[in-house]
Amino acid sequence: MSGSQPKALFLSPDGNIYPDTMICSGIIPAELGGQPCPYSQAGCFPEVTHLNPDDPSYSIDKGQPGDLCPPCAKQQLANLGHWQSHGNQKFPQELLSLRLFKCRMWLWFVVPGLHDANPTKICSYASSDDKSTYIPLPEKHLVAV
Question: Does some domain include residue 13?
Fold first, then answer.
């Protein structure tokens, strides 16, 4: 995988976790036919924004006013841990507190650092060795491009 971190992690029923670059660009799923997702921004994951109840696209299904939510999300589904073992799926421990979304293509995804307990900000962690910010990701489950 490249040095940049994914903006979103898509959770597949087969147990794999795919970075947003593979889904939004149309590499997968097959339903996209190799074309970028129609809800992406030129084949890239859209920027996460605060929900505004005055926006015509606002829906309580996406979260409370002020919560962070990507514009491609159809619904937020609480924290990923709530869905642990659903359909016999086992999600990595480090992702369980993240807010789970269903996108308009009906795929499940999480945004690294966006915890369901505090959905108004994305938390990052300072790296002890180089003081840059990073978000711990489940590398052993992540399918690279």
Answer: yes
List C-alpha distances in Å: 29 to 34, 35, 37, 135: 8, 10, 10, 25
Name the pTM for this structure.
0.85
pLDDT band at 22 (very low <50, low <70, confident <90, very high): very high
Looking at the structure of the chain, the number of domains it has is: 1
Asked whether residue 55 is assigned to any structural domain, the reply reads: no
List of residues 6+ apart from 76 with CB closer than 8 A: 61, 62, 63, 67, 69, 99, 100, 101, 102, 119
The answer to whether the beta carbons of residues 109 and 28 sit under 8 Å apart is no
Cβ count near 65 (within 10 Å): 13
**CA distances for 118 relative to 63, 78, 97, 122, 139, angstroms:** 12, 11, 10, 8, 24
Cα–Cα distance, 35 to 29 (Å, whole number)? 10
Given a cut of 90, is residue 144 above it in pLDDT? no
